TrEMBL record:
Domain of life assignment: Bacteria
Catalytic activity, EC: 1.-.-.-
InterPro entries: Gluconate_2DH_su3
Protein name: Gluconate 2-dehydrogenase subunit 3 family protein
Biased composition (Basic and acidic residues): 227-240
Key words, A-Z: Oxidoreductase
Classification of source organism: Bacteria, Bacillati, Actinomycetota, Actinomycetes, Mycobacteriales
Originating organism: [Mycobacterium] zoologicum
Amino acid sequence: MADTSRPHHLPNLRADRQPPHPSWLPRQRRGITPQMIGRYPDFDVLTTAESWDEATRQVVLARLEPPGPLRFFTAAEEPTLRAFCDIVLAQDREPRVPVAEFVDAKLADGQLDGYQYADMPDDRQTWRLVLCGLDEAARERYGKESFAAAEVATQLALVDQFCRARLRGGSWAQLNVSRAWSVCMRMTLSAFYSHPWAWNEIGFGGPAYPRGFMRLGGPSGPAAAREPFETRGALDKDPVELVQEEGA
């Protein structure tokens, strides 16, 4: 395991300004996290499931069930959808949070966010145009059959161009590309962090109803405010303080 007491792993302090592969984090010893790595290797939010009310427990545990087939995206769109979700969330091996399925279910059921940018199409059409646009860009810029068929370096380059709104023409001409990035990332991140495995990765204690919270602060720093069900992270130093100290 890499030394986590220093912030050399942070992107802006690295020569290439890119984050290292997350395998530098400790292996998960309890519960499941994406790729079985995380900052809280001895934490499993599901050990607190009995403290949740029944309705909450059913909703959360349903997210652990094996996902069904896609209902919104077509078989032709599916490979690009999966490749995009994997690359933007750095999920390159199992176990994975089934983000593609969560996004698909939300769109298939019409459970949208309740608002739409004035210069953008419906989120469902936005997703279809984005996937088509990624395939077009992979072919035109890199000579690849599709985004999903491209190597990781090409996928990363295309995602970087997407997030910087540097993709033009074809399907992209029908979108405000910057807003399209926001639409897609809002949905992928929401899906990822709705899953208990992601909660384990970040040490999130899950629903607090009806249990509530016991530790609402304290004079001795974050450790004093730890709830009884929480565990220590891979290092005790507050990461925000660590970065501030290095910056100074």
